[in-house]
Automatic annotation (TrEMBL):
Family: Belongs to the DAMOX/DASOX family.
Residues spanning the membrane: none
Essential cofactor(s): FAD
Protein name (Swiss-Prot/TrEMBL): D-amino-acid oxidase
PROSITE patterns: DAO
Protein's organism: Phytohabitans maris
């Protein structure tokens, strides 16, 4: 059992990374409190789709983080947490090889043009968690407050935060651009819509291709009586204003893949800004006699990396307890989605 740390560890941010990290630390026996500028259901995480799946990975640690997260999400599957294990297809309009991770998970099979929507020439099927983010974030909140506290507020600087708590965990997403400050962070705007489910029980997603950063994506994610349709990935844009012309194009692309969606009633629009970075940052630095553990820069893979990165943060906290010095920065740890 780790020693109690007075005062508690301070986690900054209550998106999926902040909540998951706080749950992981609190359930390991550490006293934890979360400080957040926005309630969990108003964070960027609440605007996510969200289909588990690693994309554009460069560092071996990220594959481990992704699979650790998939293991935990599968164990939590059910209505209470808003997680469903769904079969589906990822496809591309040109011939591309499947990513290695897809070939290693349940339900993997190759699909040819005859088994794909019109215009797609290569694809692969697999089974993965699909997460209803508002339900899931509420579940994480409920789980955390059994052991810790969530308080509304901000921190002026990491130095001020360390003056309050010996260990600070920075899960501020795009907010880290100002707080750290970290000019490597860039916004990537995302938009999606939620419609009534006309009878769809399999997901569909565009295949990501190394080196591409498309502004328009197509994905269909069934979540019980609703379906999430997406989406956009617009580098450099931070506007949270709904763009109805984009919503129209999203719907048109999704209807082209699955005509059942043509008459589906639109229930909700969501807009968010992904905190994109050339590398995911999960590392510990010493500051004014305290410790800051960074956990941000997940881009569109926040859910996919959440439990793996939280476990890494726990290991870094345990290093503080054992007196281990902070390791030098590993540099670029690339991921993107």
């Amino acid at each position: 059992m780790p020693p109690k740390l007075p005062p508690p560890i301070l986690v900054i941010g209550a998106g999926v990374s902040g909540l998951t990290t706080a749950v992981c630390l609190a359930e390991a026996g550490y006293p934890v409190r979360i400080r957040t500028a926005r309630p969990p259901l108003q964070t960027t995480s609440c605007s996510a789709g969200a289909l588990w799946g690693p994309f554009l990975l460069e560092d071996p640690r990220l594959i481990d983080w992704c699979h650790e997260t998939r293991r935990v999400l599968r164990s939590l599957a059910g209505e209470r947490a808003g997680i469903r294990i769904v079969a589906g297809v990822e496809a591309a309009t040109r011939r591309v090889p499947p990513p290695r991770w897809a070939t290693e998970i349940e339900g993997y099979t190759l699909r040819g043009p005859d088994d794909l929507p019109a215009g797609f020439v290569t694809g692969w099927a697999y089974t993965a968690p699909v997460v209803d983010m508002p339900v899931y974030l509420a579940y994480l909140c409920e789980r955390f407050v059994q052991r810790g506290q969530i308080e509304a507020g901000t921190v002026a600087s990491l130095a001020d935060a360390v003056a309050e708590a010996p260990i600070v965990v920075n899960c501020t997403g795009y907010g880290a651009r100002r707080l750290v400050p970290d000019p490597m962070l860039r916004p990537i705007r995302g938009q999606l819509l939620v419609v009534d489910n006309p009878g769809i029980d399999e997901f569909f997603a565009d295949a990501e291709v190394d080196g591409e950063d498309p502004s328009e994506l197509t994905y269909i994610l069934p979540q019980g009586d609703r379906v999430v349709l997406g989406g956009t990935a617009q580098p450099g844009r931070r506007s949270l204003r709904l763009d109805r012309s984009e919503a129209r194009r999203i719907l048109e692309r999704c209807v082209a893949v699955n005509p059942l969606l043509a008459k589906a009633t639109v229930r909700e629009h969501r807009v968010g800004v992904r905190p994109s970075r050339r590398s995911v940052r999960v590392e510990r630095v010493e500051l004014n006699g305290g410790h800051v553990i960074h956990n941000y820069g997940h881009g569109g893979s926040g859910v996919t990396l959440s439990w793996g990165c939280a476990a890494e943060v726990l290991r870094l906290v345990q290093d503080v307890d054992s007196g281990q010095p902070a390791a030098p920065s590993r540099g670029s740890l690339g991921v993107g989605r």
